[in-house]
Amino acid sequence: MFRRRGPRIAKRADRIEDLDASVLRSYAYWTRALPVLHDSYGGICAYACFYIEPLCGPTVDHFVAMVSAEHRQAYEWGNYRLACSQMNARKRQFADVLDPFVVEDGWFVLNLGTFKVEPAVGLAPEVDAKVRETIERLGLDSREYQHMCRRYFDSYWSPKVADQPVPLWSLERDAPFLVREMRRQGRIREADVAPRGPVAAARQTPP
């Protein structure tokens, strides 16, 4: 990873271990990384899995919180997660939230009846417990989250103009987890189902 020396600043402590979060926030250089972080994530919140408009509160989450003993992590790119302001506020310094980088596909599922996030059936007990803790901490079963999922879902299935539904590709760009669950549960329009078999092969064969 490329590193360069930053500007000199006034000494605030003899040891890095003696710094606290308030001192680190005085040098919030991680905010300068936000545009690049947003681009790197395609604008998708690492926790809620929805697109965050740059005007509407993307933030840099420190996965290892600044109040922890690992102060050096405050300026490490590998410790940054793109998060909407609500998710960042809920996660705060708590260590019971799963790191999005270690979550495996299929651990979290979306109930398309309630639009609540739930742990998948059949997880190992320790994984199931961590998934449940993450859902509770982040409010992935909250009314706000349900409302957001339902609004996106209805824009696809019950558009205000009947013959002008939101295209699936657009929905997937803004709500990839929701669309993944819609695909998995067979809740997409027939026209959006990827063809299989000889027809699919024929379409993929170059002229």
How do the SSEs run, as a string of H and E?
A: HHEEHEEHHHHH
Please identify the oligomeric state.
single chain
Order of strands, main sheet, comes to: 1-2
The structural class is alpha+beta
**Mass-distribution shape:** globular
Q: How many structural domains does the protein architecture include?
A: 2
Q: Characterize the largest beta sheet: strand count, sense, and whether it forms a barrel.
A: 2 strands, antiparallel
- Distance from N terminus to C terminus (CA atoms, Å) equals 43 Å
Strand content: 5-15%
List keywords for this structure.
207 residues, alpha+beta, His-Me finger endonuclease fold, 2 domains, two-stranded antiparallel sheet, 8 helices, 4 strands, globular, disordered C terminus
Describe this structure in words.
This protein is of the alpha+beta class and 207 residues long. The chain folds into 2 domains: 14-92, His-Me finger endonuclease fold (3-Layer(aba) Sandwich), CATH 3.40.1800; 96-189, no CATH class. Helices cover 35% and strands 9% of the residues.
Give a short summary of the structure.
Helix content is 35%, strand content 9%. With 207 residues, the chain is of the alpha+beta class.
Architecture blueprint of SSEs:
Elements: H1 21-25, H2 34-40, E1 58-62, E2 80-84, H3 85-91, E3 108-111, E4 116-119, H4 125-138, H5 143-157, H6 168-174, H7 176-184, H8 197-204
Antiparallel strand pairs: 1-2, 3-4
Helix pairs in contact: 6-7
